[in-house]
Amino acid sequence: xxxxxxxxxxxxxxxxxxxxxxxxxxxxxxxxxxxxxxxxxxxxxxxxxxxxxxxxxxxxxxxxxxxxxxxxxxxxxxxxxxxxxxxxxxxxxxxxxxxxxxxxxxxxxxxxxxxxxxxxxxxxxxxxxxxxxxxxxxxxxxxxxxxxxxxxxxxxxxxxxxxxxxxxxxxxxxxxxxxxxxxxxxxxxxxxxxxxxxxxxxxxxxxxxxxxxxxxxxxxxxxxxxxxxxxxxxxxxxxxxxxxxxxxxxxxxxxxxxxxxxxxxxxxxxxxxxxxxxxxxxxxxxxxxxxxxxxxxxxxxxxxxxxxxxxxxxxxxxxxxxxxxxxx
Length: 328
Description:
It is a single chain. The chain is mainly β. Helix content is 7%, strand content 22%. The chain contains 3 helices and 10 strands; from the N terminus they run βααβββββββαββ. It has helices at 25-36, 49-52, 220-226, and strands spanning 20-22, 100-109, 115-116, 121-125, 162-166, 172-178, 189-201, 204-217, 259-262, 272-280. The strands form 2 sheets. Strands 1, 2, 3, 6, 9 and 10 form a 6-stranded mixed sheet that branches. The chain has a 4-stranded antiparallel sheet with strand order 5-4-7-8, with no helix packed on it. The longest helix has 12 residues, at 25-36. The protein is globular and about 45 Å long. The chain starts with 19 loop residues before the first strand and ends in a 48-residue tail after the last strand.
């Protein structure tokens, strides 16, 4: 069994880190989540506790008298699959099949006592259950997987699993998506950027600046359990665990490790809720297109002849796709 999101608003063939960081260690991240989502019942799963309880030396809690809630992490590159022009929307699935995932992220000002950053725009993008990104649907995800076109969804090939949400007065955004798959040689992850100073225009977010570029990660035991389910199980090959990933540095929540709560513990196909607090410096700016904080992900195997050897996306975006920004 697997969960499925359906959204037929868009049709599939119609268009055939910046300086910043997450709040140190799981405790502060969970506190921020529970404050912002006081109406959410039940306690958070402790499945990520082993990694999330370890503080990263680059992101540590400060005393309440210091006026600062953390030391900021170094930046992480945006990776090779970023596209400009993502839509502002809560549900980014567009009918892509997979285990449902609800993301609740809280943006706070790490330079001002972790006060909420209302109006911040959080942008996320990730691969589908077989490792394919919208805009690059002919990219080989490594291992053995069906062609992306065989998934039977109605998703638009240039926009699925990408989107923005604007933070409310508590700095909170919420996304409805699916649990990402994987591609060689990366572990399971979601990319994100935090923008401030811009505004919603023509269905997307324009202007302002990027304050944080990062990645969200998933505990190995949960990811590997999900990957035994359909449609994930149709992608076979060597999955990269957290300890072997080129970007994740073992810092738990401070390095982007989500705390995950199952919708139903006995049935992982019912989905998960993931949450994290993102501490940013609203005065900082870094697009994540340059170096720093890890490679951001080497493209999977099968790079076309003549393509740049590293940091360049594989596959050609479909006609009418948003333009790709500079890659790492």
